[in-house]
Amino acid sequence: MSKKQTGPVLGAVPRVELLPPAVREREKAQQTKRLVGLSIVLALAVVAAGYSLGYLRLVTAQNELLAAQNRTQELLLEQQQYAEASAAAAQVRIVEDARSLVSSTEIAWDGVMAQVAAALPGGSTIVDATMTGTAPWASAPLVESPLRALYVAKVDLTVSLPSLPDAAELQRSLSALTGYADSAISSVSRGEDGGYTAVINLTLTAEAYSGRFVDEEAQAATDMAEEAATGELETTEVDR
User: Fold this and answer.
1) What is the pLDDT along the chain (240 residues), one digit of tens a residue?
2) How far apart are CA 38 and CA 32, in angstroms?
3) For residue 161, with 0-12 CB atoms within 10 Å meaning exposed, 13-18 middle and 19 or more buried, which class applies?
4) Where are the domains of the chain?
5) CATH architecture, domain 109-209
6) Among residues 133, 116, 125, which one has the least CA distance to residue 175?
7) Which of 23, 100, 132, 189 has a CA 20 to 30 Å removed from the CA of 13?
8) What is the pTM of this model?
């Protein structure tokens, strides 16, 4: 093991240390201060960058939360509108159902009497007519005789006829009426002028019901089904 030389070294460049040791210590202290200051600046920069990034994320999250709240509010308003529309549609449906029920046994008596008038023999006139229908909530009328057909409405006709055979002819012609059930001549009397007055009981089946609102609802349902089918067809073509 070699020993450290303490004497002069041959071939070395001679140096003379003229500065006192305190100067060197100050230089080292200044370098240390510069390094510490640089470290502090870097640390502050890192902290500032982290704060800025966190603040940016906070602002982004707040904006997303605000957008979500706005969308939720819009959905609630739409839901309320749909609820109001559904309630209105339900009310309309209730009214339509009630209308359909009330009018389910409706008979267009003007049309029936027009057919009766067309069936009259020449020279005959209707003196009186009493129409009796059935309420939707009522049961079917009782048949007066086992030989009579079931019916839902009846017309008691008092007709002035020129001759007696015209009563039978009128009874045969009445069989062509829409919804005809049967008819019966309850009485025939002769007047002082030689003419006859006949009372005819005409009964009608459910075919005589007008069904006007039922037809409208059926047509509406058909239109909706056609529109839905058309929409599905167009959607299918677009998908293709």
Assistant:
1) 455 555 555 555 666 566 667 767 777 778 888 888 888 888 888 888 888 888 888 888 888 888 888 888 888 888 887 777 788 888 888 888 777 777 778 888 899 999 999 999 999 999 999 998 887 787 777 777 777 788 888 999 999 999 999 999 998 999 999 889 899 899 999 988 889 999 999 999 888 888 877 655 555 554 555 555 555 444 444 455
2) 10
3) buried
4) 21-102, 109-209
5) 2-Layer Sandwich (3.30)
6) 116
7) 23
8) 0.51
